[in-house]
Amino acid sequence: MENVFGYIDYRRFLSSYYKTKKAENRHFSFRLFAQKSGINSSSFLKHIIDGRRNLTPEACGKFCKALGLNDKETVYFRHLVLFNQAKSAAEKQEHYAVLRSLAGNVKETVLKPAQYDYFAKWYVPVVRELVCAKDFKDDFGAVGRSVVPPIGAVQAHQAVRLLEKLAMVRRRQDGRFEQTEAAITADDGVTTLSQREYVASMMRLGGNAVHAFDNQQRHTSTVTIGISKQTYETLAAEIEAFKDRMKRIVSQDNSFSRVYQFNVALFPVSIEAKPANGEEAE
Question: Is 262 within a domain?
Fold first, then answer.
């Protein structure tokens, strides 16, 4: 599979992808790709590669799925298309800035299935950040009191033991803890019950933070919008791009004063409207 992050021209990426797949399987064809992407025209990919057609946002989404791109690769590819098809210098500059930030992504280690117990308790990731940033000298009561809302010494100790068992922290020779990997992530295609409950717990904490902290200590905002499915996918891609830029900023911060939780949620608050003309919604 071609590395999309190494390209600044999405047509060249698609050309390389096609040549690679053709070399791996002589039966691979433009028609087969069209079927895989759910596009009626068997020559559509060729027209895109040759520059005779442009990719619409809807077709771009279909291409990303057919190409087998993960979330981060999808964000990069979408901005690559927007960059190449931009009509103004300002648009090109905007999307190029995103491409530059994504190309320099922070390396993340994907958790193994055996490590998904990491999400079993909402405070385990918090404890991981705390004990590796500050020397508590095994005072787990102090660790627990440093968590908001506080947890008990036994819970804090169990969290550290779990982190050691999962090989996510280790002791240094001086007795302090350090992270085995600086940045970790769960597999994009896997959603376990513990992961869902972890996300739900953090969202509840976010709601509590509105009342528990003043606006000098927390940033919260909401917006209610009426959008199409296509725009939803575009916004989801923008959120992923922003998260990657945020990770780069964090990776360059060598000081520590507090552990923060960052939540992003984009979810429906109405039923889906039926098209007035009876046609299927895009």
Answer: no
Instruction: Please give the helix or strand (H or E) that residue 109 lies within, else none.
Output: strand 109-110
- Counted domains in the chain: 2
Decide if 253 is inside a domain: no
215/200 Cα distance (integer angstroms): 23
Statement to judge: residues 125 and 78 lie in one domain: no
Residue 171 carries which DSSP code? Answer: E
Could you count the other beta carbons within 10 Å of the beta carbon of residue 119? 20
pLDDT at 281: 42
Structural domain harbouring 209:
106-220
How far is CA 94 from its chain centroid? 20
Is the pTM higher than 0.70?
A: no
Helix (H) or strand (E) holding 79: helix 71-85
Cα distances (Å, whole numbers) of residue 35 to 30, 31, 53, 63, 126: 9, 6, 18, 11, 45
Q: Which two tokens stand for residue 82?
A: 């927007």
Please say whether the beta carbons of 79 and 86 come within 8 A. no
Average pLDDT, the chain: 89
What is d(CA 151, CA 144) in angstroms, rounded to the nearest whole number?
A: 5
Find the distance separating the first CA and the last CA of the chain, reported in whole Å: 29
